[in-house]
Amino acid sequence: MRKALGRGLEALIPSFTSEEEKKEVIVNIPLDKIKPNKYQPRFHFAEGKIKELADSIKEKGIVQPILVLAKEEGYELIAGERRWRASQIAGVKEIPALVKKMSEREIFEISLIENIQREDLNPLEEAEAYQRISKEFKLTQEELAKKLGKTRSSVANSVRLLNLPEKIKGFLSSGILSSGHARAILSLKEQKSQEDLAQRVATQKLSVRETEEIVQHYKPKKGKTKPGEEKTQNPEITNLEEKIQYALGTKVKIKNSGKKGKIEIFYYSLEDMERIIKLLKA
Description:
Layout: H1 2-12, H2 19-22, E1 26-30, E2 34-35, H3 47-60, E3 66-70, E4 75-79, H4 81-90, E5 94-100, H5 104-117, H6 123-136, H7 141-148, H8 152-160, H9 166-173, H10 179-186, H11 191-204, H12 208-218, H13 235-248, E6 252-257, E7 260-265, H14 270-281
Helix pairs in contact: 1-5, 3-4, 5-6, 6-8, 7-8, 10-11, 10-12
């Protein structure tokens, strides 16, 4: 996948071939003459990493120039915002930069690809960037996926994360939940169920696989009724199952036969079992 992204970036920043392109050179530009990239898809920058880069710049200087676009007043960043921010912390007055001529679309594409290549975007930032570039430049998900060297389904699954409740988006952007957790939770229809499961995953530090198993037990099972089983469940029993499931946070099955029956409570790890036992004792 990284190879495909690399090819995409090279296609957007081609090697110099024309006489006009050969005249482009690396120049030192005052930091205060550069404005941030308005298409920057990343909202959060790790302060610790920026500080480490600033320390490196103090010691060794800036190894790789940033990429900028010439504007009527100063310059606009295309790629290299971490270097630009770190340089300010390092107290550097100027930064080496390659000045390019690009369209708005090319600027956005490069900003997105650069961050994806470095895996710097959290899942929500990536989803919002996909949605924004699709809308602004009227690209289908398939066209966008091709440019990024990804499958259409991966782009579609990413954009779906934007449908999550705000509480879960917070878990996702902070790294408490992964995109795998979020996709599993999205398959639940009710927002309350989604939020309850997200909280449980965060509290118990459940794996994606464990989350997927829990989700499967929330879904109605399809298939033929086995001999001896009732084709329809008593509505009162179904309602009671749902109440116990909500209280215990796990699948519950009530098997009723006349005046007798049994209750099955499912658990998915020893820690999960201990949690359920504490709830039953409370």
